[in-house]
Amino acid sequence: MGEMVTFASNGGTAGGYLAKPASGTGKGVIVIQEWWGLNRNIKGIADRFAAEGFVALGEPKGSGLYAIRARHVVTKEGEHAGKKYREVRYYATLTFPVGRVARGAAPAADAAQPAVKADPVATKLLREARAARANWNDFPGFTAALEVNHGGKVVKGKVEVAATGNVKVDLPDPTLRSWVHRQLQSAVDHRLDNSAERDTPCAFVDDNANHPLGRAIRVLNDELHSGYRIRDRQIIEVNRQMKDARFTITVLENRLNREKKFVPVSYVVNTWDLKTGALRSSAAFHHTWQRVGAYDLPQTTLVVTATGLPQLSSPTPGAAPTSFDARTITLSGFKLLR
């Protein structure tokens, strides 16, 4: 197990979660957190790197400019656009300011824009909505039998979720295994989310308090240009912008669990091309949950995805989407690990 540390950095103070191997030394790895911060999942990943002999630092905190480039190669054969490949390469370059940037450092890209002051009412709306979501406290982890149905083809396997939130999927099909892992890891990460523990500065987008999806707010310190609509202590809409696309998650239904906290039932994820504005895909999700001990565990997940039409000057009215895909994940025989 690692520990929280602080250290001098760029004229200020930085810090994070440091995990070392038993030898006390090793090659260095920086573990970058998702948008919800340094949670148990990120600490667990750092601990796993330490077990493999690396010195891992999770989420640097403090002032300074940080830049990280990473590459991950997966040996996996397949075919795309008529061409065969033997491996998949993932690249990511991340440059971001943290806290107070030292004099002489490059300013943030939007530094010339007029400053927008945080609205305490908008900030409180997001904090309360995050706190109203169901969370797994003192989570022990679990194992379960797994069944995946992809367009009528049924594949069976098993899944194990560690107390740290790390998901392991055992399926014979590597492509399907990767997809199932992404879905289950997302579900687990949202139940282990610690974002309610901090205030995120927000401002209202407009004065419309009667929108059917709730009040529109935007986050002021987010590189993803995140925006939300909040209604009745629920995050009903999420908007984010990536490098070449933007997406919107629209929640259609949540339900209250035994503790009167919300778990998601159904929502839609729409993705648009950032340059053309064309709809790339629309995916509908439906979840059911099974109560095991003190935890609502993911029982079934249905995902129906349609991809958009190629961009034509005069698209045919009523034309079918380029592709249509339906998949289900079913977990059963849950066993808590302690």
Your description of this structure?
With 338 residues, the chain is mostly beta strands. It folds into two domains: 3-98, no CATH class; 120-336, no CATH class. The chain is built from three helices and 18 strands. The longest helix is centred in the middle third of the chain and has 18 residues, at 174-191.
Structural topology:
Blueprint: E1 3-9, E2 12-19, E3 28-31, H1 40-51, E4 55-62, E5 64-80, E6 83-98, H2 120-131, E7 142-150, E8 153-161, E9 167-170, H3 174-191, E10 202-204, E11 215-219, E12 227-231, E13 234-241, E14 245-256, E15 262-273, E16 279-292, E17 295-307, E18 323-336
Parallel strand pairs: 3-4
Antiparallel strand pairs: 1-2, 2-4, 5-6, 7-8, 7-18, 8-9, 10-11, 11-12, 12-13, 13-14, 14-15, 15-16, 16-17, 17-18
Number of strands: 18
What can be said about the biggest beta sheet? 12 strands, antiparallel
Q: How does the helix and strand content classify structurally? A: mainly beta
Unreliable spans are 99-113
The number of domains is 2
The overall average pLDDT, rounded, is 83
What multimeric state do the chains show? single chain
Rg over CA atoms, rounded to whole Å, is: 22 Å
Number of helices: 3
Q: Could you tell me the strand content as a percent range? A: over 45%
